[in-house]
Amino acid sequence: MIKRILLLLIFITFIQCKEESPKKSEIINDYTQFVNPMVGTSKMGHTYPGATAPFGMVQLSPQTDVQELLKDGKYNPKTYEYCAGYQYRDTTIVGFTHTNLSGTGHSDLGDVLVMPTEGELRLQPLNTENEKGFVSTFSHDDEKAAPGYYEVQLKDYNIKVELTATERVGFHQYTFPKSENAHILLDMVYNIYNHDKKNVWTFIRVENDSLVTGYRQTKGWARDKKVFFAIQFSKPFKSYGHKKYDKVLYNGFYGRFKEDENFPEMAGNNIRAYFNFDTEQDEKIQMKVALSSVSTNGALKNLQAEIPHWDFDKVKKETQQKWNKELSKIEITTLKEEDKRTFYTALYHTMLSPILYEDVDGNYRGLDQNIHQSEGFTNYTVFSLWDTYRALHPLFNVIHQERNNDMIKSILAHQEQSVHKMLPIWSHYANENWCMIGYHATSVIADAIVKNVGDFDKKRALEASVSTANVSYFDGLGDYIKYQYVPEDKSHSSVSKTLELAYDDWCIAQIAKEVGDDKTVSEFSKRATYYNNVFDAESKFMRPKLADGTFKKEFDPLDTHGQGFIEGNAWNYGLYVPQDIPKMVDLMGGKQRIGQFLDSLFTMELDDKYIANTEDITRDGIIGNYVQGNEPGHHIPYLYNWTDTPYKTQSRVRMIMDTMYGSNVDGLCGNDDAGQMSAWYIFSSLGFYPVTPGSDKYAIGSPLIKEAKIHLENGNSLVIIAENQSKENVFIEKITIDGKEINRLYLTHNELMNGGEFIFTMSNKPNKNLGI
């Protein structure tokens, strides 16, 4: 009887365990383990390794931007190398800031730097002949970086630093040694770029023995940026103070108070404050830093709403779960583990911007510097549109449709608040910095409309686009309208501007088609052909033209300077007619000739003098004369699809993925440019790419994955399988969609959104008839 009872109990236990075991489909894999935030922190990737939430307003990251102090007392900032405040080669950390740009080609931000120290109080960051600074050495052996988490040991102070973040709050955890002289510094002088020359005004207020509020106004790339903050300590500080570094001392108290270093309100241009503690051995002091663009009260609301407790591990876990949820939208298997790490790190980088830019109550600072309430959308900022319209926003139209809808509404709000009534060009932190050329918000809008993404007002979007396209004083636009091209003797980078504006005008025509505005369709379809006017039929290059209608005589198609192009040359940038590739092929002499042109582009030897003039990249980012390390040529490998040898797209794309991307610190061959470089890799790994945003078609390349499952927001799942996948099998033998073979070199957006099964049968030999 006892045996029977035992057997029965074992059987019941087995059944219960079986019933309680999660189904295979319910098991959630940890995709954060494949992400290496250190990728791109070396050389010119310009990424940061710190803690942030997906699209988060706080980017809490270490700063190694320690400027060299010259003998004459002046600083020598290596501005361009420190766009994200961090370079992997460095061995010292100056502190941890709460705002950082990812992968951009310009320096800014670096707000609210904090630094824990121990021992003698030091307020100068750098070591000099007469004084030791508060910087600390560190080792990469003691450094950990993962989505939503960063850790490092500050060697000079024996302090362990751990960082995590929610969308609006940075959470610090410092493990101190036993000390009667532990400090946490609040350095409001530090900025990424022009450290002590950028501040307009700084204000710090000690509310009580564990709460500090304040703000800083700066004039940098964002000409008038305001960052408000609220800092809460887990332990009361025993004393505090500050030092002012203003060249002109301000007295705002009219003689009624003496503003000494212990005064609870600190105001001026450049201020460093300090907060002192007694600590036991291995005592943890925590600090929460909330940001707001609106007010210190807004920062306090964000603080209470997002982290009302002191459980660091809980916040870390919740933020990593948010990352895993976003990363798991695309589940892949690969031939090599490194390819999986490269893929998920790239996917991670595509979600570092644009960033959330509103408080928990929906208030945000607008372009007009007034406070607005987001109604029916979430407001975003950091729009590097010259880069991101190409692949990042199209990627959002596949896996982040709701977010991209909000981003477009943010773009339209920007236009409404603009005194110029223009859509953003390159905007961040309630500012327009006018960086780069064209008005590519029109591309972002057109791509969403054509792909039926979002519920934004299409008619309003068209009006905003047309308004933008007729601001005659904007960057050569008046001459473009007058001459039907941008004359080189009236505006620099004239060919690039003409080509980009013509494409943007085509995008406006696509928006107008959806709205049903035939007159606007006709007007902007005509403007979209203006690229013809800078094509030189004799040399077969796009070439700078003067206002008198003649081409510029001194012309070197290999040079990137003074030849009518920006961040590119005639060989690369001259291939930019995405709105009408067949016509461009005809202009250049037909399919066979452009195929030969592309072959030459990828195989020629480029002299070092030309590489030296190529922005943002090193020789590592160049194949022949083709530049993968910068955006103007990202569509070029796919142009073979419009030639007699389309299979060469497949071999070129695979070669680029294999040689120019990786999972180590130098895994990017140029600036990540707010996620565009990484978005190229994501699309290309899956086997297709949006050569013409604003069209519903994707050019087929060569998938790198073995299998991918994309979970779409409409509830469908898209499965992509690369049969016979191997390093050698880079060519596509055939393609089937749900069992039906297709003989074309493109996929449509509806086909993707319908889900189903796409099978690429791979081979080591090209199928020369595929798509012909």
TrEMBL record:
Keywords: Calcium
Residues covered by the Glycosyl hydrolase family 92 N-terminal domain: 34-292
Cofactor: Ca(2+)
GO cellular component: cytosol
GO molecular function: carbohydrate binding; peptide-N4-(N-acetyl-beta-glucosaminyl)asparagine amidase activity
Gene Ontology terms describing biological process: carbohydrate metabolic process; glycoprotein catabolic process
Domain Glycosyl hydrolase family: 299-763
Pfam families per record: Glyco_hydro_92 (PF07971), Glyco_hydro_92N (PF17678)
Family annotation (InterPro entries): 6-hairpin_glycosidase_sf (IPR008928), GH-type_carb-bd (IPR014718), GH92_a_mannosidase_put (IPR005887), GH92_N (IPR041371), Glyco_hydro_92 (IPR012939), PNGase (IPR050883)
Assembly and binders: Monomer.
The protein, known as: Putative alpha-1,2-mannosidase
Source organism per UniProt: Tenacibaculum adriaticum
Lineage summary: Bacteria, Pseudomonadati, Bacteroidota, Flavobacteriia, Flavobacteriales
